[in-house]
Amino acid sequence: MPEYIADPGLAELGDRRITYAARAMPLLSHLARRFAAEQPFAGLAIAACLHVTAETAVLARALRAGGASVSLAASNPLSTQDDVAAALASVDGMAVYARAGVDRRTYYEHIALALDEGPDLLIDDGGDLIQTLYTERASLTAHVKGGCEGTTTGVLRLRRMAAEGALAFPMIAASETPTTRLMENLRGTAQSVIDGLLRASGVLLAGKTVVVAGFGACGTGIAEAACGLGARVMVTEVDPVRALDAVLRGFRVLPLADAAPLGEVFITATGSAAVITAEHLDLMPDGAILANAGHFDVEIDVRGLADLAVAVHPDVRPHCDAYELADGRRLLLLAEGRVVNLVAAEGHPPEVMDLAFGIEALALAWLAGNAGKLAPEVHPVPPELDAEAAGMVLAALGAQIDTLTAPQREYLASWRLRS
Question: Whole domain around residue 163: which residue ranges?
Answer without folding.
Answer: 2-176+347-396
